[in-house]
Amino acid sequence: MLIYTLKRLVVALLVALTISLISFGLLYLSGDPATTIAGESANQAAIEAIREQYGFNRPLYEQYFAWVGRALQGDFGTSFYFKVPVTDLIFERLPVTLGLGLSAIAFAIVLSIPLGVLAARYPNSIVDRLALTISVMGQAMPSFWFALLLIMVFSFMYPLLPSSGSETWVHFIMPTVVLGYYATPAIMRLTRTGMLEVLGADYIRTARAKGLRPRVVLFKHALRNAIIPVVSLSAVQLGFMLGGSIVVETIFALHGTGYLAWESIRRYDLPTVQAILLVFSLIYIVLTFLADLLNAWLDPRIRVG
Amino acid sequence: MAAITIPAAEDIVGPTPGQRLRKRIIGHRGVMIGAVILAIIVLMALLAPLLAPHDPYTQNLGNRIVPPVWTDGGSWVHPLGTDGLGRDYLSRLMYGAQISLFIGFATALISGVIGTVMGVAAGYFGGRVDLVVTFLITCRLSMPVILVSLAVVALVGSSLTVVVMVLGVLLWDRYAVVMRSATMQVRSLDYVAAASAAGCSTWRILVSEILPNVMNPLIVVATLEVAHAVLLEAALSFLGLGVQPPLPSWGLMISEGKDYLLFEAWLITIPGICLFALLLAINLLGDGVRDVTAPENRS
Amino acid sequence: MAALLEVENLRVDIPLGAGDLHAVRGISFQVDRGETLCIVGESGCGKSLTSLSLMDLLPPKARRSADRLAFDGIDLAKVAPSAMSDIRGNRMAMIFQEPMTSLNPAYTIGNQLEEALLRHRNVSGREARERAVHLLEKVGITGAASRLGQYPHQLSGGLRQRVMIAMALMCGPELILADEPTTALDVTIQAQILHLMIELQKEFGMGMILITHDLGIVARVADKVAVMYAGQIVESGTVNEVFENPMHPYTQGLLRCIPVPGKTRRGEPLGSIPGIVPSLIGEMKGCAFANRCPYTFEACLTTDVPLFETGSNPNAGRGYRCLLSEQQCIENAKEVA
């Protein structure tokens, strides 16, 4: 288990390193970053001054190491647009995004795991059809369109929920549903196929032969084994929600990191974009790392090797 | 005199695999629904120049936001009404189908080539190649597609080509994952070992033994990735960093319509329904192909 | 007094697209306390489905019917599912063929042993634990107490099957159903496990149904034998009667397939039964064995053969399903030997 953990840790660090290179590379994607910052109309002297100020005239590797070095100390530079430290900007808004992501994944799990279990227990029943319909619809529903439909119905036709802002928990209801619904099909399908497979296993027959109650067979013996891959999928989906939050936060004007990402991209605020890409990727890396550990812990065949 | 009825030859031999496949395709409701919807949308896109009642770009500011024909004030001149700049909505939808389909297929092609090469290489050669590919997949999955593509499109400049290139370079992960495991499975089969024992070159084994046998999962992934690309293009365009106006991308149309959300909801619902129908059709086809080619996967 | 288990005209049908698969076609037998019945037959003859149907563990599609299906006087055909689950694992227990996959990988041995007792008896966790340790020792597992905390993947196949046996014994059942319990194990382990099962069966006075295709096992453990072919019992009786005086051509064929020390000469080919088992889909006319039988005559193809009762003791269940006269059968047997 220790060796397993260490191996995963090394991979996670290497991935983080690669992502930091890509984040850094974003700066040069538009050609000359100094021109991008100064704007099209700036004269040569102003561009030169910016180049000097941000150190764009130094060799690339020096710039990279300086950037990573500062990033490791939690310093991502100053936002071109907001003129405040990027770190403050992100951490001020991260709670909104994390709160949204967690409530969305909770929504998705609460909806999809029971449905997936029942669909597998009663194949081709009404529950199974319902689960299939929800997952097929969920796959085909663009989240931005779904969000607009919800606003149309619940903010305008029946003014029950606010369509924008992030002041109270009520503001989070629709964003949670939109973001959570996005993750539902995958989790539900995996639960269903996993349960179907497990329910056909010999040890389920053993459990029934012991005279255990159907509920105990289903939840203690079957779900416990089928849930293992669902745990890592949920972590991965939570990571994907960081990306999804950009769309959802933009539509509902939730002032989280996703909204900040969109604002910064539109304003060519490169230090902020770089930092958000790195932070989002790091969160994803940590999540999958934790999921791997949780997975190993849940599966005695890995834990007690 | 034979009392134990000897089954007729057809009962033992049964239908040929081709016949059975055809029967399963026809009998699969998802595939049929998906195919019909997709066929309608493809026809709409192909025949847009012939069938569209108006030019999709001609503005008529005196004739803005005409409602669709089934509501008060609508007329058959503009069956689905006009948008905020007085452009015919039906014509824009038809040309929009071209954009969605083009982006979907072009992206799936680019990412499919990248992902398949990586996945097959990893699965066939294993060892270090596999380590590197797996690492690349992990890196790719760590970055949110939408964030990276928004940033790149914003920095490089948004156009149809850029969107296709960016999505194509980003969406190869699922191909690589699936092709890797499919290739590993096929590689361990006896006939591949036999081919390599017979002295076939690596290239020959890859092309004539491995590739035909990983075709089914490849088709399934490709179908689902077309849908993925269509969805992402719509989202990028909706956020204003995908296809640029005046091109009639469905995502862009929804974005333009959202200012009229309160009173002219059809401006959003109509392109949204088209997008939903297209994604539904492609997903149904993809799931159906998976069921039909591997029926044991779904009871 | 009635037997512990009475089965009359048990049928198991599996609906398929092309018509019903009649997997078990009306079989009858009895098992008493302290008695071992061996059901013998080739794979696919319906012997596993017979045992699963007794436990009400058939796959969801399969249908069971019987004229009488009584366990200690309780009509199993009429009992509610919840009452059936009260009997299952409690008074009737089953040991399966696949020890490698029959234990849940996610729980410890102790947990899986104890839950059977906790389900059926009002005992404390400690008592369940003690019972588990006691039975693990009983089935010959050393260091029983420390094994309780182990997971299935940490045990060998032989150990797992011993655990399965201990698990079946947790509630002190009156009837044990064992479906090829040693098939998946190494030969040396097979003998140990078998020996253990006979010992325990005698010690606890349980009734046992042992399903096997191995006539060597039958000869060593059975009191009674039922030979199954194509979903029917083609011959039944005490082990001595059946082995010494096989009546049915199929039984005779089976017995020719095992080498007998001192009788089978070195290099002499063992017997085999040519042909294949007929399809069990749809109705079957005539004798199911007719297409493989060396003595088939006209009537075999058209007449449904009943089970002819024979033997001096009508309660011994001696019977055979063949149209040949008793005298003819006995002569065939001699000829074969």
From TrEMBL, chain A:
CDD domains xref list: TM_PBP2 (cd06261)
Homology family: Belongs to the binding-protein-dependent transport system permease family.
Protein's recorded name: ABC transporter permease
Key words of the record: Cell membrane, Membrane, Transmembrane, Transmembrane helix, Transport
Lineage start: Bacteria, Pseudomonadati, Pseudomonadota, Alphaproteobacteria, Rhodospirillales
GO biological process, one term: transmembrane transport
Gene Ontology CC terms, in alphabetical order: plasma membrane
UniProt xrefs under Gene3D superfamilies: MetI-like
Organism: Oceanibaculum pacificum
From TrEMBL, chain B:
Main localization (coarse): membrane
UniProt organism field: Oceanibaculum pacificum
One Pfam assignment: BPD_transp_1
Family according to the record: Belongs to the binding-protein-dependent transport system permease family.
Keywords: Cell membrane, Membrane, Transmembrane, Transmembrane helix, Transport
GO biological process annotation, one example: transmembrane transport
Statement: the UniProt record of this protein carries the keyword Glycosyltransferase: no
Record InterPro entries: BP-dependent_transpt_permease, MetI-like, MetI-like_sf, OppC_N
Subcellular location: Cell membrane
Residue ranges crossing the lipid bilayer per the database entry: 30-52, 99-125, 145-171, 218-240, 260-282
GO CC entries: plasma membrane
Domain of life the protein comes from: Bacteria
Domain ABC transmembrane type-1: residue ranges: 97-286
Membrane topology: Multi-pass membrane protein
Descriptive protein name: Peptide ABC transporter permease
From TrEMBL, chain C:
Membrane topology of the entry: Peripheral membrane protein
Record Pfam families: ABC_tran, oligo_HPY
TM regions (residue ranges): none
Compartments (UniProt record): Cell inner membrane
One GO CC term, this protein: plasma membrane
UniProt keyword annotation of ATP-binding present: yes
Entry keywords, A to Z: ATP-binding, Cell membrane, Membrane, Nucleotide-binding, Transport
Keyword Ribosomal protein: no
Gene Ontology BP terms: peptide transport; transmembrane transport
Domain ABC transporter: 5-255
GO MF annotations in UniProt: ATP binding; ATP hydrolysis activity
Classification via PROSITE patterns: ABC_TRANSPORTER_2
Similarity remark: Belongs to the ABC transporter superfamily.
The protein's name in its UniProt record: Peptide ABC transporter substrate-binding protein
Organism whose genome encodes this protein: Oceanibaculum pacificum
